[in-house]
Amino acid sequence: MNIENLLKRDSFIERGARSRAQALLDPGTFRELAGPFARLHSPWLAMQHLVTQADDGVVVAKGKLAGLPTVVLAIEGAFQGGSMGEIGAAKIAGALELALRDNERGTPTQAVIVFETGGVRLQEANLGLAGIAEIQSAIVALRRHRPVIGISAGTVGCYGGMSIAAGLCSYFVMTREARLGLNGPQVIEQEAGVAEFDARQRALIWGLTGGEQRAATHLADACVDDDTAAVRASVIDCFARGVPAVHRSDRAADFLACLERVDTDRQATAQDVRELYAKGLE
Question: What is its EC number (predicted)?
């Protein structure tokens, strides 16, 4: 991409959570639920003298996407690293459950989750983990009726229990700048040592967990440019495919079989991983 086109591009990454939700929905249909004026902030952060936010870093919006009823759940990565605590997780799970209720009553409401999260909020560990479990359960229930689309654009990525939620989505869209993994590079290095995973090697990190690699290894369904129109078009395309005959999470045994063939005596390269998954998931 040349400089002129780069400057003209409408970056999805540079948008905040609220702006991302507005950009995904059809113009004039955005309506925020449980927004800042509802003052739904975590009671636990203030107790530890940490800054709170009135919406706890989660934007819930309802509107239409390509003319269809849609709820968009966008996590603000700039607040507490997009971590999931009691309030934010309850907002996402509750919105998905309302979408499920719509479908059961005959209104085909679909859902988009914009993942920008490091996983559970450590200050609210038990409550946050319980909330993430509720999100996962709600995704599985809703996807029986309508696709649930996940997006990870960057720069925080999608990690921890929320990466499992991402894996439960009907389809997952990433930019090449995004990352997806159960544990972050620093956590892996801390627990297994720098010889196992050097968190300073950016090429290694993106080569193994970036959007291009995740799409190539079937852990994501599309890798698109960091362009708002491109992200939106990919989401619309995913919805048009309908509910998958087999969800990715239903193929867990196939993915595990691929992992079992990894040579753990040496550091796997991005190409090694692509070849393993290509053979195992044909």
Answer: 4.1.1.88
**Which stretches of the chain are assigned E, i.e. beta strand?**
31-33, 58-65, 68-75, 110-114, 148-152, 171-175, 222-224
Q: What is the pLDDT of residues 29-42, one digit of tens each?
A: 999 999 999 999 99
> For residue range 41-84, what is the model confidence (pLDDT) as tens digits?
999 998 988 989 999 999 999 999 999 999 999 999 999 999 99
For helices 86-104 and 125-142, give the axis angle rounded to 10 degrees.
20
Q: Can you tell me the distance from the alpha carbon of 232 to that of 241, in angstroms, rounded to the nearest whole number?
A: 15
Q: Which two tokens stand for residue 2?
A: 């040349």
Per-position b or e across 241-272, b if 16+ CB within 10 A of its CB:
eeeeeebbbeeeeebeebeeeeeeeeeeebee
**What stretch of H or E contains 94?**
helix 86-104
Whole-angstrom distance, CA of residue 241 vs CA of residue 222: 13
Query: With b meaning 16 or more CB within 10 Å and e meaning fewer, what string describes 78-102?
Result: ebbbbbbbbbbbbbbbbbbbbbbeb
Report how far apart, in Å, the C-alpha atoms of 31 and of each of 21, 59, 60, 64 are.
Answer: 10, 10, 9, 10
Instruction: Return mean pLDDT, the chain.
Output: 93
Q: DSSP alpha helices (H): ranges in 112-158? A: 125-142
**Tokens 């997952």 correspond to what residue?**
172
